[in-house]
Amino acid sequence: MSESKAWIAGATGLKLTPDEIAFFRDERPWGFILFARNVSEAAQIEDLCAHLRDLVGREDAPVLIDQEGGRVQRLRPPLAPDYPSGSALAALYRENEEKGLRAAWLLSRLHAFDLLKLGIDVDCLPVLDVPVEGANDVIGTRAYGKHPEIVTAMGRAAAEGLLAGGMLPVMKHIPGHGRAFADTHHELPTVTTGLDELAEHDFAPFKTLSHLPMAMSAHVIFSAVDPKYPATTSGKVVEEIIRDYIGFDGLLMSDDVSMNALSGDYFDRTKAIFAAGLDMVLHCHGIMEQMTAVASCTPELEGKALERAAKAIQSKRKPDDSVEEELRDEFRSMFEMVA
């Protein structure tokens, strides 16, 4: 029996329920993800992270969070400042490229200071989606702009800031969510753009940053590749675009399996994700009935997926914590923040 199964789980509250404790101990998720419902104060978050790792018997079990800045930020004051969005960083880049890149690096480095001391060691950042005019606002201000070269440069700086701080980045949403005209939380968008344009625009940031350790899939149909299935459940998109064209050989996880862009029950969704060649399924909401279905058809983490997971964890660096106040002051000189 391997140490863990190929899934990442969420919990319902600030402390684990008896049912969650028994379930996570039995079903051994590779990692966990926290949301605003799971955080209140520093000691509580530290205790929750430690409890989750203790249940699966692995001190290096990853604990993920979406801490981007702007409207997608799970830790708020006083746990962390209200940080600017990706689009605000990009505005600075357009004024001064060097300052913009430094700001993207600094923000991620500050995320690492905020998160790592609480036990959270993976940030689902950078957002590498490149929105087009008229696209759904689900990405919107989270993006670094509408030009792939700017998104690539800013995304690289953001990822490097996390890595320098001892965190692992997760680039999202591969191979690109910026052209979606629907919110995948609610419905399935279809992108009909031709392959050449997708390669030049949507796929470009992911291709340039394909060396990063982890990526999260897009629940988006790319009809030029597979007119039937979204990237998350499309073997063609995974093999031909993500693995081959983009060249990403890191750990590939799904976006949340409970989003309404995916169809079928939770057994069907989970089976389809693994059949498509993803390494890991992500379930965010902590709803026991759903988790039970997901876990029941999730395989042991083994083979290539296990190698990718191990390589990701091994890519963590030892941070220099002595520079925190200096870096915070530098970032404050660029942006006014609510502390």
Strand order, largest beta sheet: 7-6-3-2-1-13-12-10-8
Q: Largest sheet, described in full?
A: 9 strands, parallel
The rounded Rg comes to: 19 Å
**Low-pLDDT windows of residues:** none
Question: What's the helix count?
Answer: 12
Q: Helical proportion?
A: 25-40%
Overall shape: it is globular
Give the N-to-C terminal Cα separation: 47 Å
Element pattern in H and E: EHEHEEEHHEHEEEHHEEHEHEHHH
Strand content: 5-15%
Structural class: alpha/beta
Mean pLDDT score, rounded?
96
Query: How many strands in all?
Result: 13
Could you describe the 3D structure shown?
The chain contains twelve helices and 13 strands. The protein has 339 residues and is α/β, with parallel strands linked by helices. It has a nine-stranded parallel beta sheet with strand order 7-6-3-2-1-13-12-10-8. A two-stranded antiparallel ribbon has the order 4-5. β6, α5 and β7 form a beta-alpha-beta unit. The longest helix is centred in the first third of the chain and has 20 residues. The protein starts with a strand and ends in a 7-residue tail after the last helix. The model has no long low-confidence stretch (mean pLDDT 96).
List keywords for this structure.
single chain, 339 residues, alpha/beta, nine-stranded parallel beta sheet, 13 strands, 40% helix
